Amino acid sequence: MKPLPLCTGFTDPYALTRRSFLHQFGMGLGGIALADLLTRESHAKALDRGVLGAPHAGAKAKRVIYLFMSGGPSQMDLFDPKPLLNERHGEELPASVRMGQRLTGMSGNQSSLPLAGSPFAFQRHGQCGHPLSERLPHTATVADDLCMVHSMYTEAINHGPAVTMMQTGSQFPGRPAIGAWLSYGLGIENDNLPSYVVLTTKGKGGQPLVGRYWGNGFLPSRHQGVRFRSGKDPVLYLNNPDGIDRASRRKMLDRLNELHALQLEEEADREIEARIEQYELAFRMQRSIPDVMDFSDESASVLNSYGDDVKKPGSFAANCLVARRLAERGVRFIQLYHPGWDQHGGLRGGITNQCRETDQASAALVRDLKNRGMLEDTLVIWGGEFGRTNYCQGKLTAKDFGRDHHPKCYSLWMAGGGVRPGIAYGKTDPFGYNIEENGVHVHDFHATLMHLLGIDHERLTFRYQGRRFRLTDVHGKIIKGILRA
């Protein structure tokens, strides 16, 4: 059989490799992609709408602000009071309650596991009657806006795996974080800012915060979280070096893009495209970031509502206000990390200090969003990676005690973004050790979060190493009991 006539400009089809064919076909797919990137002006180019193009269903939330309390806040000293523990303070944890469940190496070898009641008083607040610790007077003022979940649970019993689980849906490093999944699925709303921003409280000790908690995993690198720091350079290496002005940097990027174009002609590598996009975003952020970090346009009443610490760059209060300003500008996922909740000892003083640093600003953020009409479509989350034990780790004394890690039940709260305000979901037993009603696994929490953003958690997937992965792995059900009608 005679070969078909050749199209003008092409060589023998039997001699063509796939790469050379794509290269000749319109300079290659990589060249097409680069041409698209370079012809879009910084403020006029079409926004990336993500792989989904649009949410699967009507979204109740457009954005998320996640206040992550790293270390594991004690639920029974903050949100879930257990009077029985105070009545039986010092008594041994009943075997019928523990049921042989796994303990950490820090308390697993103790000869005694004495029950420890909370040293803090509780009162009910708002029309909903949420019981809150005396250490949360500001949170008490927004009680009716809060959806309390008392029945969270996880398999992870140590910090690294537990934080990784809460952020990525797996105890093992290497999976994309929540914000990376949302960036991949839904894209961006502001071309001059990242879709996923991370803020950490400056100068706080505790368990280390590592980049995998906000990493992109196997997703394209442009979806990883961008960490903002306090000080004059919130994003490292963003500002121009001495002697380089903005025009010079623009010329440098143009020449660099030309070199990348040559590389893309040889191989259509999406990481090259991602690198070009990140360089261009960094150039645009040189103007957008200073605006976000400058509080001079905030009223005195707003600043005062967040507390005196708002004047300290990098404090939790300042980061909460930055989070609101980022949300206003279209950043989809904003995560604040506040470490130091790991009270293995000195619990009374430790929790008092932690609440002093976080209580006022957390409440102010909810109120500020509500006053601006943003709480309706902004989901605010407050919580850690697991809870604390109802028994004392180490020796129980009249003045001091601590609590070990407890993954079997813990509390978090949510506000806005389509969740029902003023309700409590789930119930723990009178000892605060096991869940009695409506357990919520981490995968269920993630499935619900994505549902509120209009995403079917089973349909947002990424093919990697021969299988399709998703944030909820092969698990997860939507917690319908907390959803607003």
Key terms:
31% helix; globular; disordered N terminus; alpha/beta; Alkaline Phosphatase, subunit A; 485 residues; two-stranded antiparallel sheet; 9-stranded mixed beta sheet
Sum this structure up briefly.
The protein is α/β, with parallel strands linked by helices. 31% of the residues lie in helices and 14% in strands.
What features would you describe in this structure?
The protein has a single domain (63-237, 299-482), classed as Alkaline Phosphatase, subunit A (3-Layer(aba) Sandwich). It has helices at residues 18-24, 28-39, 83-87, 95-98, 137-140, 159-168, 178-186, 246-266, 270-293, 300-306, 316-328, 347-371, 442-452, and strands spanning 63-68, 122-125, 130-133, 146-153, 196-200, 226-228, 333-337, 378-383, 387-388, 405-406, 410-415, 423-425, 427-428, 435-437, 440-441, 462-464, 467-469. Helices cover 31% and strands 14% of the residues. Strands 1, 4, 5, 6, 7, 8, 11, 12 and 15 form a 9-stranded mixed beta sheet that branches. Strands 2-3 form a two-stranded antiparallel ribbon. A two-stranded antiparallel sheet has the order 9-10. By secondary structure, it is of the alpha/beta class. A hairpin with a 6-residue loop joins strand 13 and strand 14 (435-437). It is globular, with a radius of gyration of 25 Å.
